Amino acid sequence: MNANGVAQIVFYLVVLTLLVPPLGRYIAWVYEGRRIPGLARVFGPVERGTYRLLRIDPEKEQDWKGYTGAVLVFSAVGFGLLYLVLRLQEHLPLNPLGLPGMSWSLAFNTSTSFITNTNWQFYAGESTLSYLSQMLGLTVQNFVSAAAGMAILAAVIRGFARRGSGSLGNFWADIVRVTLYVLIPLAVVWTLVLGSQGVMQTFSDPVTYQTLEARTLGTTGPDKQPVTQTIVRGPVASQIAIKQLGTNGGGYYNTNSATPLENPTPLSNFFEVLAVLLIPAALTYTFGVMVGSRAQGWALYAAMMAILVVGIFAALPYEQRGSQVLRATGVELSASANSPGGNLQDKEVRFGIANSVLWGTTTTAASNGSVNSGLDAWTGGAAVVPLTMLGVGEVVFGGVGSGLYGMLLMVLIAVFIGGLMVGRTPEYLGKKIEAREIKLASIGILAMPVGVLVLTAVAVSVGAGKASIFNAGPQGFAESLYAYMSQFNNNGSAMAGYGFKDFSGTLGGVAMLFGRFIPILAAMAVAGALSTKKVTPAGVGTLRTASPTFVVTLIGVIILVAALTFVPAFVLGPVATQAGGLF
Q1: Number of C-alpha atoms within 13 angstroms, CB side, residue 288?
Q2: Which of 144, 196, 224, 464 is the most buried (most CB within 10 A)?
């Protein structure tokens, strides 16, 4: 590790923490239906018009079943519309390259990916999708899938905060308000920032230019001719802004945020990686505001931040030191005035080791599939970190909304264990946590590891699954494991050695659907149960859930669940790769 890299990481963490209270308080106002000065004049008519168009009474609240039903209907309609756009792409406008529609299996995987806030991409965006598909299909889903996650969280928080009501709000009102007053304003700001750094925003046709490279013609002679390259342009900045803010992660280009076309400068890199955790981090403060105890929100933030920091600084030395293979070749791995040193394979030198590790760790901690370096080229020891972030269920900040309601399920398990230790009925925020809530929380938590291990076993065992694995041995297993961990966690990042086939596309789509909706059903059922309960005043023996002791307990539960389920698989994959000195 070098001081410059560490300083950049610390600066990032400090800025993120400073932004948590103001944005968290603002989101709480949006959830509570308050009038937002300034924005209400712009978006108020749009909000009211949307309610009238959809015939929605925003004051009519729903119980957990009605709210969840609305989420499922909304997601199903979004899937159908996106599937049609992708399949019929060649017949639709804004397609300057005349690109054909997607195959059924790729369209199924992509549609599932974007309605579940996963943004897993088995394709190169610039050579597969038209401008219309990128905007009307993907960018719209980047907004609404993120808004759906935030709306669900609003309902879950109300379940923890309310006393005996049984109602959790109105899904349609929540998703409209989140989109208009949170996601769109932030996306506009980030689009302008990225545009100022050189990220394009245009409807112009692709441009062909002459490169500096030359190709020798024939086996002899001095004849050379210029080599040209075609760059597909389009509305890139707006899509990159919401892909990061919504923890979506789908790139406009195949090389994602490693290409200068999406991420041209160190400043654009900082704003993009800041956007990844901005809303998930702020939502912990929102939770504290809405349940009437900011200390509870800070306790959740502390647990998440502690795991994130350990992950970053666990991966950094491995990447800075490089691999045995690189050292054996005589490559200079030491940092100098002209080089950041370390394992620079598949990394952008303008970002270096520290910003690559920061990005890879934060995006897998969040439900964000964007990359600014090739994860497949990380050393085996460093690769354990993004796998671990996926393995804990992406509750270390996680996706917008989904990360915090997943963390709250973990909190209930930690409270239950704490109650067993002191011999009392477990309580959280004054509400008794009983067998029903623990069973539901367990389902929501264990669905991911069970699903990932089963699907990975199928993928590496049957012939159709093996066809997607491009590398043999531990690295190939690690790529397969990562693929299903990423998809089941609605993350979307990937190791490059896992490819598309009809089998992998279909199996991955199933993973994304189960990974999105099983935790939603569990969290909403828990919220529904808690919303009907009365609050018991705290006593001498009440477990203090805003204390450092509980934060440590919560971290221990998170790590223990991940370790018990995934350590054997990690040993077969990245640990074996590191031990063999392969990467």
Answers
A1: 23
A2: 144
Report the number of distinct structural domains present in the chain: 1
Say what the pTM is: 0.91
Tokens for 287?
A: 């939770």
What element of type H or E holds 403? helix 402-422
Residue 176 in any domain: the answer is: yes
Q: How far apart are CA 322 and CA 383, in angstroms?
A: 12
Q: DSSP label at 470? A: -
Under DSSP, the state recorded for 490 is T
- pLDDT tens-digit readout, 277-315: 999 999 999 999 999 999 999 999 999 999 999 999 999
Strands 207-216 and 427-428, sheet pairing: unpaired
Q: Are 113 and 119 in contact (CB under 8 A)?
A: yes
Residues shown for the chain: 583
User: 3-class SS at 223?
Assistant: coil
Q: Which domain holds residue 88?
A: 3-210+232-579
103 token code pair: 């195959």
The rounded distance, in Å, linking the Cα atoms of 503 and 455 is 12
* Domain membership flag for residue 534: yes
In a domain, residue 215? The reply is: no
Q: What is the pLDDT of residues 58-73, one digit of tens each?
A: 999 999 999 999 999 9
Does the residue 219 lie in any domain?
no
pLDDT of residue 113: 93
3 state SS for 277-344? HHHHHHHHHHHHHHCCCHHHHHHHHHHHHHHHHHHHHHHHHHHHHCCHHHHHCCCCCCCECCECCCCC
Q: What sign for the dihedral angle of Cα 282, 287, 292, 296?
A: negative
DSSP type of residue 424: S
Cβ 74 vs Cβ 453: under 8 Å: no
Tokens of residue 209, six digits: 């230019």
- Which of 241, 271, 279, 43 has the alpha carbon at shortest distance from 142? 241
Q: What's the angle, vertex CA 77, arms to CA 74 and CA 83, rounded to 5?
A: 135
Q: Which of 572, 581, 344 is nearest to 474 (CA)?
A: 572
| Residue corresponding to tokens 């004054």 | 430
Residue 215, pLDDT > 70, answer no
